[in-house]
Amino acid sequence: MSVAKMLMIFLLLVNKMDPEAGGSQIIKVTPLQQMLASGTGAVLTSLMVTPLDVVKIRLQAQNNPFYKGKCFLYSNGLMDHLCVCEEEGNKAWYKKPGRFQGTLDAFLKIVRNEGIKSLWSGLPPTLVMAVPATVIYFTCYDQLTALLKSKLGENKSCIPIVAGIVARVGAVTVISPLELIRTKMQSKKFSYEELHQFVSKKVSEDGWISLWRGWAPTVLRDVPFSAMYWYNYEVLKKWFCAKSGLYEPSFMINFTSGALSGSFAAIATLPFDVVKTQKQTQLWIHESHKSLIPRLIKIAPACAVMISTYEFGKAFFQKQNARRQQY
């Protein structure tokens, strides 16, 4: 039996156990409800994916110690954040000694010796930008998709591509200046007055465009990923629904479609990711074949959890809106 057939049988069994998977009238959700659903998905995705990156960084720091001023990338499953090693010694979470023998050993030793909360070290500051960026991205995508469908028709294959591109460009444009400021604040302990002086000086010397200095490499990686991700996600979701005989996708269909489309997009955009990483960290030590597996391990579950949680949240609000319409 082929893998595809086994996957279809699994999805059919799950759908039969899902009493809500049958056809129903589509009730629209409001932009605020989309924002709440995407915000919830963003937080859950970060909580589930961040430990993978924390362990990866701890292993990297053990094998190639971080000296003061060295850059490294921290990913919470939603965004990659450029971090700067702030101090010498072992005070920072990523410098704590562990004598890890591998990934599983690192997980177990961190939990046993430092407490389970250490698996989410460094997460809170990154959520300040990652959650709003995700909310903007997903809400804009859905709003643009609805607008394009009303103008072009329901079945135009270009709609998820166009909506994905525009939504991602918008999110990156909003967040880029904030990410620049966050990185600067981390690399040197600025007061708010000093930060204001830094921004004012930068704008006066280089113009407003200087606040978007990291915009181009981010867009070159994220926009192709977004276009391919949303196109494949919509195609896979429709295909699974057709094979399962469903009018609306179930949680497992959303989860599986998100994981597969995220994996496809991650593989296709790997060269852009390597270039962006090298430019950010200024360390030309990465090789594409060594980057693929860690990228897939991070992106596939992040995409699956985020999109399935988001769709689940929208479905919840649809039911609430439907009940209100009945009264």
TrEMBL record:
Solcar repeats: 29-147, 155-239, 249-327
A GO cellular component entry from the record: mitochondrial inner membrane
Annotated catalysed reactions: glutathione(in) = glutathione(out)
Source superkingdom: Eukaryota
PROSITE patterns: SOLCAR
Membrane-topology annotation of the record: Multi-pass membrane protein
Signal sequence residues: 1-23
GO BP annotations listed: mitochondrial transmembrane transport
Major localization class: mitochondrion
Keywords from the named record: Membrane, Mitochondrion, Mitochondrion inner membrane, Repeat, Signal, Transmembrane, Transmembrane helix, Transport
Keyword Cell membrane: no
InterPro entries cross-referenced by the UniProt entry: MCP, MCP_dom_sf, MCP_transmembrane, Mtm1-like
SUPFAM superfamilies, A to Z: Mitochondrial carrier
Subcellular location as annotated: Mitochondrion inner membrane
A Pfam family it matches: Mito_carr
The family this protein is said to belong to: Belongs to the mitochondrial carrier (TC 2.A.29) family.
Chain's role: Mitochondrial transporter required for glutathione import into mitochondria. Glutathione, which plays key roles in oxidative metabolism, is produced exclusively in the cytosol and is imported in many organelles. Mitochondrial glutathione is required for the activity and stability of proteins containing iron-sulfur clusters, as well as erythropoiesis.
Name of the featured protein: Mitochondrial glutathione transporter SLC25A40
Lineage: Eukaryota, Metazoa, Chordata, Craniata, Vertebrata
